[in-house]
Specification:
Length: about 400
């Protein structure tokens, strides 16, 4: 099992590193109704035979997803968990070797804009995985940047198209990374929206909803298969390591028995040599014959001593490997505990802590104890239920909240 925090970025891009080379990455984003409409186009080359699946992880929890390509797609799956979206695209046939394939992902990202006193704060993450990357972020019509010096990361330019202010980044990264983008904007005095702008906005919303309907069907189809496959893989890895440890222990035990047997054989041979020496003294006529036997036995003795030395070296090596495997298992067991808390917001942690302390608690009591709004508590509880962390149980006539067994073990 991977150590979550250290290997998360490797897991995001590992399949592509092995099989693909992303030549160009073009990201176009529109801030619309406090949400982000995101369009990511990747142009990549495949270098692996019989490769028909493309993997990508977006460091965002997208709600609506649609995927298209210039190469026939058989289907795709998306698993949304802990603020990331793991996406697998299956093509109808193996990808061509060393030829450019274009893949476009269209999605809706929520919870990336917050309302301040007199401004809006925008923050989100983008996966930077191409050799040439261009990012264009369109502000809403009538919106302007409040503090240009607070835009991150640096190296941007600000332009416009007469309707939107646009922030543009042109990157040539040396390695893949996750880019965190933030800025503040506010709305200029109201300008009436034309019928054409309303029509354009309605068309965009309709296309997003249509794409979402298509993506939702694929998501429901592949989500459970993906989750079950990952759980089975983790358990199989645990059993494999456990089996290897048992096998190494058995090998060490067998070698120790063999070493003791060979030492006994050496002792027996020493006794035989002494007996032969006595016979040589008593039987001078057979001196040459006995000398040959002594030479032969001496050679056997040397070989056995060499074998014992080699076996002892192997025993030490196996003991080292056994210790490494024990450390791997210990790290694996330790890494499972507490992982869940690293991917929760402060509000989610506060609610889960209350449920953990009370074992069973009502949603109304949570509102009272945390002083959060009723709607906020309801939204957070619903998201925790969807992620399999919290469940509702009927106690008498009251619905009580409690932690799922899996979440209870990981917290």
């Amino acid at each position: 099992m991977v150590i979550k925090k250290l290997l998360l970025i490797l897991l995001l891009f590992l399949p592509n590193i092995l099989a693909y080379q992303i030549e160009n990455e073009n990201i176009v984003c529109f801030i619309h109704n406090n949400n982000l409409l995101e369009n990511i186009t990747l142009e990549f080359k495949n270098f692996e035979n019989n490769k028909s699946t493309f993997y990508i992880t977006l460091p965002q929890n997208v709600k609506i997803l649609n995927i298209s390509s210039n190469y026939p797609i058989d289907g795709y799956s998306a698993v949304f968990q802990d603020g990331t979206s793991n996406i697998a695209v299956a093509f109808e046939k193996p990808l061509p070797i060393n030829k450019t394939v274009s893949l476009t992902l269209t999605c809706l990202v929520k919870d990336c804009i917050w309302k301040g006193y007199d401004y809006y704060q925008f923050i989100t993450n983008f996966p930077i995985i191409g050799k040439n990357v261009k990012i264009k972020l369109y502000l809403p019509p009538g919106a302007v940047i409040v503090y240009p010096n607070l835009i991150t990361p640096e190296g941007y330019e600000i332009t416009g198209d007469g309707k939107h202010q646009i922030i543009v980044w042109n990157l040539k990264p040396k390695s893949e990374f996750i880019m965190t983008t933030s800025l503040r904007f506010a709305y200029a005095p109201y300008t009436p929206i034309t019928n054409k702008e309303k029509k354009d906005n309605n068309i965009i919303i309709f296309l997003i909803l249509l794409s979402g309907s298509i993506a939702f069907v694929a998501y429901e189809r592949f989500k459970r298969i993906k989750i079950n496959k990952e759980k089975n893989q983790i358990y199989d890895n645990y059993l494999e390591i456990k089996g290897q440890l048992a096998e190494k222990n058995k090998q060490i035990s067998d070698l120790e028995d063999k070493c003791r047997f060979l030492e006994e054989e050496v002792g027996k041979l020493k006794n035989i040599i002494e007996e032969k020496d006595k016979v040589i003294c008593e039987m001078s006529k057979k001196v040459e014959e006995y000398l040959k036997e002594i030479k032969l036995l001496g050679k056997e003795k040397e070989d056995l001593i060499n074998n014992i030395t080699e076996l002892k070296a192997k025993i030490e090596k196996l003991k080292d490997e056994n210790e490494k495997l024990k450390n791997i298992i210990d790290k694996y067991k330790d890494s499972e505990k507490g992982i869940l808390l690293n991917f929760l917001t402060d509000d989610e942690k506060k609610i889960i802590k209350l449920i953990k302390e009370h074992k069973y608690i009502t949603q109304k009591d949570i509102v009272s104890l945390t002083r959060m709004s009723k709607s906020k508590v309801s939204r957070i509880v619903s998201e925790l239920e969807e992620r399999g962390i919290v469940k509702k149980e009927k106690v008498g006539r009251i619905n009580m909240l409690t932690l799922t067994d899996e979440a209870d073990n990981l917290i």
